[in-house]
């Protein structure tokens, strides 16, 4: 093979790979409006990767709805998909470090808490680098990042957020008590609920929920028959005080989030109030972020108190 062919082959291979990937129309439009002839390819490649990752972040495989207010805030402060992605990535890394230092229960900002999972922060950084290498193997750098505007956090507004903050504090306080709240029977009940959620199909779980609604006020034996829980666990649920009921509900949500996220997403969609303004939408986004924070806090306390592996 001639020397010119050896030199040209990497460039043509890179072009073919880029061309074979679907560059989103939103990215093309952004680059047409903002890029010049010299940086147009870079704008397209960086934008395509950022567009894909930003979309991934709000799915249940990553942060879910908790990521939405952060993505929205980063998008409002930055004028490109690439810079928006850098903003989100650095926000997630900062949130994870904050959580490592003080724990999730002491993070006042619901948006920061909602994206503070340490393992997830490491995962998205690794996947970002892998995606770059996979889609554009001959791209040696990612130019976005130096001029991006960082995430500044969300202010806690309204009764809804304050209520959820109280829920987090309650769950944390309950878990620190001397066993009266997370007792052996509580741990056993939570374990049974976790096994049910993991082992039953979405259709079976929805049927159980419908049956419980139809048998409101049922005794422990009936609840056990409907759900498959032991009578002792059903009795614990019936006798639960407000704090225990909150913990049980939060753990149910946490278990559903892992195994049947669509059920939880449908619940949130059905419960959400219509929003008419950007401010109201941001308030709703923060409420969702804090809701997921409640679930995460409850699961952490369950794993710790009940010695779950």
TrEMBL record:
Domain of life: Bacteria
Key words of the record: Signal
Signal peptide: 1-18
Protein name: Uncharacterized protein
The organism of origin for this protein: Marivita geojedonensis
């Amino acid at each position: 093979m001639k020397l010119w062919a050896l030199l040209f082959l990497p460039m043509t291979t890179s072009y073919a790979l880029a061309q074979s990937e679907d560059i989103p129309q939103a990215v093309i439009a952004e680059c047409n409006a903002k890029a010049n002839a010299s940086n147009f390819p870079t704008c397209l490649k960086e934008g395509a990767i950022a567009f894909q990752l930003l979309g991934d972040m709000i799915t249940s495989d990553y942060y879910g709805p908790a990521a939405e207010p952060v993505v929205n805030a980063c998008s409002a402060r930055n004028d490109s998909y690439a810079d928006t992605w850098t903003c989100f990535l650095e926000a997630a890394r900062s949130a994870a470090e904050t959580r490592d230092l003080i724990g999730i229960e002491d993070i006042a900002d619901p948006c920061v808490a909602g994206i503070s999972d340490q393992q997830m922060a490491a995962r998205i950084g690794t996947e970002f680098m892998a995606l770059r290498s996979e889609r554009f193997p001959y791209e040696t750098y990612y130019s976005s990042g130096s001029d991006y505007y960082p995430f500044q956090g969300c202010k806690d507004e309204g009764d809804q957020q304050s209520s959820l903050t109280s829920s987090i504090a309650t769950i944390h306080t309950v878990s620190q008590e001397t066993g009266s709240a997370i007792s052996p029977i509580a741990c056993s009940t939570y374990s049974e609920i976790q096994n049910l959620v993991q082992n039953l199909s979405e259709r079976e779980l929805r049927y159980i929920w419908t049956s419980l609604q139809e048998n409101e006020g049922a005794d422990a034996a009936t609840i056990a028959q409907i759900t498959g829980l032991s009578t002792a666990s059903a009795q614990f649920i019936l006798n639960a005080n407000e704090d225990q009921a909150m913990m049980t509900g939060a753990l149910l949500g946490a278990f559903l989030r892992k195994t049947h996220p669509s059920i939880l997403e449908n619940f949130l969609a059905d419960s959400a109030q219509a929003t008419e303004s950007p401010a109201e939408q941001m308030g709703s986004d923060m409420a969702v972020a804090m809701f997921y924070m409640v679930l995460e806090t409850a699961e952490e306390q369950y794993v710790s108190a009940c010695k779950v592996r």
